[in-house]
Amino acid sequence: MSPASEPAFDGKAFVRTLSTSPGVYRYFDADGELLYVGKAANLKKRVGSYFLKPRMEPRIASMISQIARCETTVTRTAGEALLLESQLIKSLKPRYNIMLRDDKSYPYVYLSGSEDYPRLAFHRGARNLPGRFFGPYPSAFAVRESLSLMQKLFQVRQCEDSYFRNRSRPCLQHQIGRCTAPCVGLISVEDYRTDVRHAEMFLEGRSSAVIDELAASMEQASAALDFERAATLRDQVAALRKLQAQHHVHGASADMDVIACRIESGLACVSVLFFRNGISLGTRDFFPRLPLDAEPGDLLAQFVAQYYLDRPVPRELIVGEEMPDQEVLAEVLAEQSGHAVEIKHRVRGDRAQFLQLAQRNAQASLTQRLASRQTLGTRFDDLQKLLELAEPPKRIECFDISHTRGELTVASCVVFGPEGPDKSHYRRFNITGITPGDDYAAMHQALTRRFRKVAEGEGAKPDVLLIDGGGGQVAQALDVLHELGVAGITVVGVAKGPGRRAGEETLVLADQGREIHPGAASPALHLVAAVRDEAHRFAISGHRKRREKARERSVLEDVPGVGARRRSALLKAFGGLAGVEAAGVEELMRIKGIDRGLAERIYAAMHP
């Protein structure tokens, strides 16, 4: 039986077959695409609410009209159902669910372990290194700001181990008073360990205890007539007290996140204020996908479940709205984290002020995003009119080429949609097998590699293809699309104007045999220029990375007897090619497997 002749889904009959157990249900359309994932404390009652009510809201009725199949999974508890729902939403990305679009791992402050002189460092990724991790922090900026403070207050080293092990004299950080130079033994292991312990206490939120210890040490130094050390400790205590006054948030618990959301014009913003150890770590804004006009409470419930599913959970969550199944969610998070978790929506005093601040942040960020989206919408509409398209383009791709005198050519592809750049679809192509400097051949190769997948039925096809260049580059694009049999794409060349001045670009439509000069006031040209500039930036950054990598290895590759393993050992020991270049023959001989003859050859190659 063909899909067209299959009987319509009988929701009422299906509901009669369900149990009253907790579980998860999934709706599919006729093509097998997942529409929606939901949880239920009572499957029969929850699924029945979609099909047994006489009238439904238009947003829900639209989804129900597409349902061709429903699958359910029974769980032991409502908490397991909530957990499974969040996992399925994150992995399957159903069309009608609220979806948190945040794949970045969070940054931490890392304190290395099992060393005489541990280091503090920025860390993002798996926490499987020996030592301690403090965080997570809401942004890389917050981590780097904390590390900068650590340098000023406690002077614990932050340099790479390879750099630290190969110092023969103090670096600039010591000279400006931000490191005690353990690399050359200017501080004892015991004194350095004391500084590390104070840094740990500070990162744990025990700044008052650090101040008390330092004040006691200051008095002892003064009594022993060691006035220079006493003055140093006095300045350290003063700096800590000043920092404490600036950053400590009275009334905040040791660990607390404050979460507020705003929904407007089909967009949603969730703003989170992070507090750890009574100190504010700043805010972070999220813009979840909102296919249905969900209520703020539903949005917050989905956000909290998805966001904290695989992240550390603070002991207290303050939310702006009461959430469905709030108690169940708190129990699940407590079980996941191994400690009690409270979720509150009615708060007073300082917590109410924090919540108001989060709500203002959410509203301001949403207003800014809406203004940006409206500007983009105007530019997309103007581009439709300029190119005489049937409708505004939904996907724009732009290609650019970058090289240095033909060396290590890189092609870039950037993607823009109605909401701006879609960086998850950016691509770079390392160009090989062409005559150096032949931009036409480079463009032909990059476009072939990109659109071969489209011809094979894989990947999305752009509505507009921008090429940085004039008629010759556009001709390459048209040839590739013709060879691969890809149709339905408007190809536009972006040629620089006289004097390469912005706003005077010419848009080349070679397939239509015409050129367009929109002018500096054209919103469509503003959009095209923004996409072109982003492609240019992405291509240049890729070329520079490839060139730096090649140049870092090329000199050592030319030395007989230096293979991949020895080259790696050299670069690791000396912290890069500059360190190898600065090393003498005796220092090079300290590397395992390098005798005097080889060390002299390396030195000669580095100093032609």
Can you characterise this structure?
With 608 residues, this protein is an alpha+beta fold. It is 45% helix and 19% strand. The protein has 20 helices and 19 strands. The protein has helices at 11-16, 43-51, 58-64, 78-92, 140-154, 161-165, 172-175, 189-203, 207-223, 227-247, 296-307, 326-337, 350-387, 439-455, 471-484, 523-557, 564-574, 577-582, 585-589, 596-606, and strands spanning 23-28, 34-40, 69-74, 107-112, 120-124, 131-134, 255-264, 267-276, 279-286, 316-319, 342-344, 396-404, 407-417, 420-421, 427-430, 464-468, 490-495, 506-509, 514-516. Strands 12, 13, 14, 15, 16, 17, 18 and 19 form an eight-stranded mixed β-sheet that branches. A hairpin with a 2-residue loop joins β8 and β9 (279-286).
Taking the sheet with the most strands, its summary is: 8 strands, mixed
Summarize model confidence as the mean pLDDT.
84
Alpha-beta classification = alpha+beta
State the share of residues found in helices, binned by percent. Answer: 40-55%
Question: Gap between N and C termini, in Å?
Answer: 78 Å
Number of strands: 19
Strand proportion: 15-25%
Question: What is the count of DSSP helices, taking H or I runs of 4+ residues?
Answer: 20
Shape by Cα distribution: globular
Low-confidence region ranges: 1-5
Q: Radius of gyration over alpha carbons?
A: 30 Å
Keywords: Cytoplasm, DNA damage, DNA excision, DNA repair, Excision nuclease, SOS response
Subcellular location: Cytoplasm
Family: Belongs to the UvrC family.
Function: The UvrABC repair system catalyzes the recognition and processing of DNA lesions. UvrC both incises the 5' and 3' sides of the lesion. The N-terminal half is responsible for the 3' incision and the C-terminal half is responsible for the 5' incision.
